[in-house]
Every structure is written in C-alpha cells, then in structure tokens.
Amino acid sequence: MAQHAPSDLILMAGQSNMAGHKVGVDDLAETERGLIEGARIWANGAWVPLAVDAGYQKRGFGPELSFARQWQVQTGRPLSIVKLAKGGSYLSRGWSAEGRGGPLYQRLVAEVRAAMATGPVRLRGLIWMQGESDALDHEDAQAYGTRFEGFVARLRQDLGVPDLPIVAGLITAPGGHVDLVRDAMASADVTAFKTVETRDLAHRSGAVHLTASGLAALGQRFADALSSFEDSALIRQWLWTSDQYHAWYEGETLTPTGVVVSLPHAVADDGFAEPGFGQRFFRKRGTAAVYVRARMSNWFQDDEVFEMAKAIRGFIPKETKLVTYGASMGAYGGLLLSGALAADRVLAVAPQYSIDRATVPWEKRWSKAAKRIDGFVHRMEDHVSPTAQKLVFYDPLNADRNQIALFDTDDTWSLIKIPLASHQVAQRLLDSKSLPLLFEGLFDDGPPVNDIRKAARARRRDSKIYWLTLANKSAERRPGLALYAIDRCLEVGGPKWKLKKLRETLSARETT
C-alpha cells in the first residue's frame, strides 16, 4: 500500500462549457497562466501538472482552473482531476449509460479506473456541465431527467462508489427546450446532488458559451457546491480491471489493522452491476476492504483470478491482517484464494466444495453455470491455505450439508451449523442481528463462534429466512406448521409472492 497522502479526485464531464469554448491563454491574466501548485490532471494515461492547455485537450481550459484554485483555498489538500468533455455531445448518445454505454461514457469510466489505479485517492465527486445538445430535441429534453438519473446510478455502480456526490450546472441557451432540461436537472431524483446557476454568468454572443470570466466564476461555484458536502470520502484505489474481474480498495486509512477481501456471490445477469459484497455493511463499521466483482458466475475457474489475487496481496502490507469473506460462490472463492492471498482467516458462508458435475453428480443447483464453465481447472483443496483459520457457516438441514461433507478438514477448520437458513445463511444471520458478530475480533482472536450460534438461535423468530425455510420444510408432512410459519414470515417482511404461492399449494393439497 502506498503511504503518501491521497489527493482529492474530482471528475469533470460534459460538453462545450466544460471543455471551454474558444478560450486560451491570452484570455487569462499573467498571474493565472502558470501551473497550479498541488494540482494535477489526467492526460494520455498519466498525471501532468494542471495548467492551461493541460489534460486531454490540446488547447484551452474550462472551469477546472478556477475550481482548483478555489478548492485549494477551501481545503488546502492536493487535487487530482479527471476531465472528459466534448462539444455538441448528447446525454442520449455519447454519454448514454444504457446497455454497454455510449463511447464517451465508456471512456470516462475507463479513464477514471486507470487514474485510480496509479495510487490512492479520495474520490470527492463528479462535476457535470451538459445538456445544451439534448435541449435541441423535444424528446431528448423530455427524457433528460430519467436519463440523467440512470447516468448517475450507472456511474456510481461502475466505479463502486454508491454515494458519489454530484454537482451539475444548469444550462443556459436561447430557444429550444432549455427549460425542460433545466427543470429535469433541478428536480432529478438523485441523492448527494446539487445544482449551480449559470444564467447570470458572462456568455459570448449567442448566450450559449461562457467567456473566460464566466468559466472562472463557474469553476468557483462548482468548488463551493462540492466542498459543502460532508467530508467523509474514503480512500480508494483501483487494483484490477478486465473483462472478467474488478477489484478496488476502500478504507478510512492506508494503514488499517486488517483488510477484508470480499468475494462476490453468484449472479443471474451482469455481476459488474452489483455493489461490492457487504460494501454498505463494511462502510458503516469502518472496516477496510478490497471488493472483487466477477462479470459472470464462473466460480473463479481461470488463471486470471490468481493474477488478481497476487495484485491484491501486493497492495496490502504483510503486517496487515487479511480475511477473505463471501457467501455461496464468494465463499468458495474465499477458500480457493486463501492460499494465494496468504489469508489469516476465512469467513465462508454456505460455500460449495464444487459445482463440477464430475465431482458432485448429485448437485442440481447452479446448472447453467456448471454447463457454461469450460473445464473446472482449479480445485479448492489444491489452493486453500493450510494455516488460515477457516470458519464455515451452513445449514445442516439442506443440500449444503452434502457439499460440506466433502471438505477435508483439520483443526484449522470450524464448521458452524445455522439450522433453518437454507442456502441464505448470510441473510438469516443478518435478520437475527447475528451477522455483526462474525466481524467481532476479526483481526484478533477471531469471531465469538458460540455467541454467534446462541444469537442466531435466540433471535431466529426475527428472521424471514427462518420462517420461510420452516414453511417449505414442513409443507408436505406438517401443513398446519407450514401455515403458521407463513403467517409469521409475513409479519417479519417475508416475500409475499413466494408465501402466497406456498399457501395456494397447501390449499390445493387439502382439496385433493
């Protein structure tokens, strides 16, 4: 882990008023033409000092210069900027976050990840100045609010920052459907979001493009708005990006006592659309973590995953405790990679020994993934750490017990039974307020296993998973108990459609 202080990272994106239209060094006073000390901008895959004609643009400047000066006056912290803007671009096209994303959106995400891979930063927010092009078309203007909300949600998702602050400039232009876009922006259903006015700023003839003085004022307004958000940005560094995996670090410090490496569970669609597993939970606890995302449910059956593990291990200092954590496929991954990561402890919730039908011909679950995987090349037992403490949580009353029975265990393993959880052991523990206990003493002597068992049992009636599992298991032989469990499950927020279907099945049996 790099030990120098992380800089504040600001993202800037949009069209001509973010790029800066027909402005250059001659539009600045002599005192504003030099380098801005302590500030840098991303350009062609590297950081360069922030100045006029710096960044991806060959010439000119936008609001970033005055933003940087104002930001440093307010914070005194080093500043990094990733900026991408193109005149005449549309949110409905180049910046679209739908599907694969438009070319500008894709490039922005790629540039930000590349910049974040160079060292630790505190990602403070996105500055957005765009919408004039969309205001030219009535349909685009009407859809702007929905598209902008989707853009923000997708960007936060792709960067792994669910609460990324956003500041947007309200556009100014004559004619068209400007007010539709302005109103859509002002009323957007986006958290951690503010807008700044631009109508009173100095514009060139035509009232679309800002002058140099207008850009200067805009940058100051952006800085004032963004700096007003709560100062709680975590340190982040992007560790791995490919077509198969993402991995990034997130924590309050560069020197934590311990780090959790969180592995993803199986997904039905695109795993890159998921947050880091347990991300919200770890953030609330202040636990440093490396989050891994897999595009598909592949059970980590490729060589790349070990290259990624090497990169993660190289980032985390040897003296820092490392714990792997995951559920289902993620639990398998935590065990599989525990050796490569030199893990001190593994928290494996409902793991599999294998889903390879040649090894577990009786397994009926995860059939699509098992068929799709082209050869199971990595057996878990060949890679699991022989020294790490391995805590396995599972339901002994469902099919997971057959998987657990295949583990070759010794005194470094603890098999903890959580009855009536089905495969959703993590949710069962969360429902019964037992999950936090898994992380007590995580980087010391380990979680209090007996307390976890007791809490999971004592508070089982608070768990919708407990009641749903009980209802399913008792449906055939004890329908009265199943109906009772259905009612209790509804009381604690269980899935109505599943319970309705189960109740209908029970009623049908009574009438036959």
Short synopsis of the structure:
This protein is an alpha/beta fold. The chain contains 17 helices and 15 strands. It has three domains: 7-227, Rossmann fold (3-Layer(aba) Sandwich); 236-457, 3-Layer(aba) Sandwich (Rossmann fold), CATH 3.40.50; 464-511, no CATH class.
What does this molecule look like?
By secondary structure, the protein is α/β, with parallel strands linked by helices. The protein folds into three domains: 7-227, Rossmann fold, CATH 3.40.50; 236-457, Alpha/Beta hydrolase fold, catalytic domain (Rossmann fold, 3-Layer(aba) Sandwich), CATH 3.40.50; 464-511, no CATH class. Helix content is 33%, strand content 17%. It contains 17 helices and 15 strands. It has helices spanning 16-19, 64-75, 103-116, 138-142, 144-159, 178-186, 212-227, 279-285, 304-315, 329-336, 367-372, 400-404, 425-431, 449-458, 464-474, 479-491, 496-511; strands at 7-14, 39-43, 46-49, 79-85, 121-129, 166-169, 193-196, 235-241, 245-251, 258-262, 289-294, 321-327, 345-349, 389-394, 413-417. It has a 15-stranded mixed beta sheet that branches. Helix 12 (400-404) links the parallel strand 14 and strand 15 (413-417). Helix 2 runs parallel beside helix 7 (212-227) and helix 15 (464-474) packs antiparallel against helix 16 (479-491). The longest helix is centred in the first third of the chain and has 16 residues, at 144-159. It is globular. The termini are far apart. The relative contact order is 0.07. The model has no long low-confidence stretch (mean pLDDT 93). This is Sialate O-acetylesterase domain-containing protein. Keywords: Hydrolase. Residues 7-226 form the Sialate O-acetylesterase domain. InterPro entries: AB_hydrolase_fold, Carb_Esterase_6, SASA, SGNH_hydro_sf. It comes from Celeribacter baekdonensis B30.
